[in-house]
Amino acid sequence: MKVIEKVSEMQKWSEAERCAGRRIALVPTMGFLHEGHLSLVREGKKSGDRVVVSLFVNPAQFAPGEDYGSYPRDLERDRLLLERERVDVLFHPPAEAMYPNGHQTHVEAGPLGRFLCGLSRPGHFRGVTTVVAKLFNIVRPHVAIFGLKDYQQFQIVRRMVADLHFDIEIIGHPIVREKDGLAMSSRNAYLDGRERGAARCLHRSLKKAALLVRQGEREAARIVSAVKEEIEREPLARVEYVSLCDPCSLEELEAVDGEALLALAVRIGKARLIDNTLLKA
Amino acid sequence: MKVIEKVSEMQKWSEAERCAGRRIALVPTMGFLHEGHLSLVREGKKSGDRVVVSLFVNPAQFAPGEDYGSYPRDLERDRLLLERERVDVLFHPPAEAMYPNGHQTHVEAGPLGRFLCGLSRPGHFRGVTTVVAKLFNIVRPHVAIFGLKDYQQFQIVRRMVADLHFDIEIIGHPIVREKDGLAMSSRNAYLDGRERGAARCLHRSLKKAALLVRQGEREAARIVSAVKEEIEREPLARVEYVSLCDPCSLEELEAVDGEALLALAVRIGKARLIDNTLLKA
Questions:
Q1: pLDDT tens across A132-168, in order?
Q2: N or C: which end of chain B has fewer CB within 10 A?
Q3: ipTM (interface predicted TM)
Q4: Does the domain formed by B2-173 have CATH 3.40.50.620?
Q5: pTM exceeds cut of 0.90
Q6: Cα torsion for B164, B165, B166, B168, to the nearest 10°?
């Protein structure tokens, strides 16, 4: 596996691969890899001839006071995991290369960035779209793989790709869960033993909602209430939001009719955890 | 000359040319071409093996009430002019292709977009950076040529290219002037005979400033006053701004020391005209 830190070297490598007729798949990550990331890499192996994994903890998507400084990092372990998956390139640029002196241009997500996590994390999706646009221009992939745990991010990136005419296919890959249902996340590392137990309430609440819909419930307010109730039965958990919304526009729904996205964010200890599921009426 | 209207066809053409080892130069225009544009095309011929001229009157860079609807258009004449210059591709997409349904992503220029024309045209540079990012992703040039009459636009595009890591060289091409000094512009078509005569005051005022600096004047306030005075001697002209600023940051200067940009915008009849020059102390 090649490890590339320089932007120009990455661009050169990609141009040569493209012109040799090879299809490049990109898996953008912030590192501290888990099975969820590795499943994206495997999807990348299927959809491209070459897989590039980028590892960059993007300062622009963290607000002051968020966990940029304490975000877990372990480059050596990540490198070994990616070697084992036979990744072709690990792109690992320093922050100064990604945000050159005098940096001032941003890519702004539109209304899609204002719902759900956008409400409590203003500026977050602007940071995401900006860094993803950079990565797309540097790696120039044919296809990029995003995990559906960050469902809103996936939709925003898809929108950006269409709007700015990036010639890139965006694939959303299903959430990978621990045995007890907790969605895999680098931030699960923040949880101590008791909190880890408490975190099972996220998936439990999603399953409860799915059951309600299967039993015929259609009213969004009642489903959202039931989900909140389920989470709040767990004393260590604080609900940030629970939203039942249109899977494309992310606008809140009054009733489930066809497909609906149930998305939530919950704080447990130092961790802010998100999860979601598609409900079908 | 190939005329391409479809985004995907343009992308395909460019990828094939790149992979054949040919260097692509892009000249982005809003059409109604004049000698200024054609000099950009000739610069493009020198800097690339293939020249693509895009012709798109970009609605997003006009505010409501500005001249989007009346902006002069003459596709047939433009086509002939470009044929004659042996341009390889005229890329002429319809607005629905450039702004697909549900469009909501924008590229935001930072502080550079707030000075000069940014003050009186809020949103203008956001429209410019957004459409230029689109064009770069569609045409994928190695080099792009911009006219220096739109000096602020040139600096903003350069900044965007550095910040978003577009692998593209940006060339600024000197202003082309009519015999009497008026900078060529598609908007000169708005001027009637008397107004056309009056418009000579822009270049005259720039020359006056250069003379003052050669004579030893360094104080910005005095130079700006002299420029305004020169323009205001012309009864048909209304100064929108006159600014003496740093050529890179566009921040206003108190004194000329080294290189300074003198930039101005003037309204004459229905036309809003801009011009600039670099002053050297």
A1: 999 999 999 999 999 999 999 999 999 999 999 999 9
A2: C
A3: 0.97
A4: yes
A5: yes
A6: 130
